[in-house]
Amino acid sequence: MSEFTAFSLLESIIDRVSLKGYKQPTPIQKACIPVLINGSDLLGIAQTGTGKTAAFSLPIINKFGRNKIEIKAKSTRALILTPTRELASQIMQNVDDYAHGLGLNTKVVYGGVGRQAQVDAIAQGLDILVATPGRLLDLIETGDINVKALEVFVLDEADTMLDMGFFNDVQNIIAKLPKSRQTLLFSATMPAEIEVLAEAILTDPKKVQITAETVTIDLVNQSVYQLEKSNKVAVLFNILQKTEHEKVLIFCKTKYGADIIVKALEQASITTASLHSGKTQAVREQALQNFKEGNLRVLVATDVAARGIDVDNISLVINYNLPEDPRNYIHRIGRTARAGKSGMAISFAVENDIRQLTNIENSIGQVIPVVTEQPFHKEFAKTSKEVTKKKQIKKPNRKTNGSRRKRK
Predict the structure, then answer these.
(1) Which domains are present in the chain?
(2) Are 211 and 189 in contact (CB under 8 A)?
(3) Which of 72, 90, 150, 208 is least surrounded, with the fewest CB atoms within 10 Å of its CB?
């Protein structure tokens, strides 16, 4: 019997959860679902991959499934605001799966596609709307949606909203919402701006903090390949030829770089596609769907486009370029080792990457092993700081004054 029955959810929801293979709630689901069913506001500190979509959507679906009302035209009972189109689509897909058979009206809206179909859907009145900030603000300003009857507001990936420059849009949207509502705010980190926002929009919230970083790090076999920049493609081929990984996710720095990698892999008859903001929404969705279904072996993505990617059985993540922000390293390698499974993450590092690599290691509290048994290994003259052991570190410590050690 599913442990989700302990939450007193509708039987149809429990059936749908079981069909998706969920045998027991994740830590964030255990902590959030009872709080949200009771109607409290919530501040959740958790990353993508911890199960938070179900944590916030199951109580909403349960509430609306038990209490159906006549919805006014152009209104929605719940609004889930999220930063990227891919994440919005993914959340909508999960919501529709969980709500199957309950007769709830749902819709996802985002930019980059025609707006008329979105306007027509909203005009009928919605139970749940999933949206990105830009398109939602546009629909509000043109009078195509009225948010005054909103009952539940979910702000997902708040720190990513900040990083992507959506913060002003988010604040403008919040200013238009009714004061009386249940509000949920989720963020992977808590910079000062998010703390201020949380204080402003949450009323006597319950706080749930899930440290997914430790779980992710423990389940992922991490390694670094030191090499010259000119040898990256050759090393990539070497890795793909020698491994049996069926789904490989490669992260790179730029859209241009992603397309170059795709071209090189296609010439080697490796099925691949790129995912970045230079592609149309239709092309991005098709690439992601093909990757999910196993029609592509490799997906090459930039950080922004890949936020929220939730694809089962990615066994290998390759950091073709190291991220500048250590937090993105955790987001990246968290695409593998999902649902308690193990995974592998390989990072390419050139000599100029030592500072970034040191920051990443200090952030996760451990040294990432260097693979010397690869054909293009290069010893670096520079050294990186000794990294504080993970058990001794509670947050990124970039002021560590430990001894220097040679990176081999």
Answers:
(1) 3-210 (3.40.50.300), 213-406 (3.40.50.300)
(2) no
(3) 72
Please tell me the distance from the alpha carbon of residue 127 to that of residue 39, in angstroms, as a whole number: 17
pLDDT tens-digit readout, 163-219 = 788 989 999 999 999 999 999 999 988 888 899 999 999 999 999 988 655 445 677
| Global pTM exceeds 0.85 | no
Structural contact between residues 147 and 177, judged by C-beta atoms closer than 8 angstroms: yes
List alpha helices for 108-175, DSSP H.
Answer: 116-123, 133-141, 158-163, 167-175
Q: 232, 320 in Cβ contact below 8 A?
A: yes
For residue range 46-68, list pLDDT tens digits in order.
876 678 999 999 999 999 999 99
Better-predicted residue by pLDDT, 381 or 110: 110
- Other CB atoms within a 10 A radius of the CB of residue 261 amount to 20
Whether the Cβ atoms of residue 362 and residue 398 lie closer than 8 Å to each other: yes
| Cβ atoms 118, 96 nearer than 8 A | no
Considering only CA atoms, which of 370, 324, 373 is closest in space to residue 348? 370
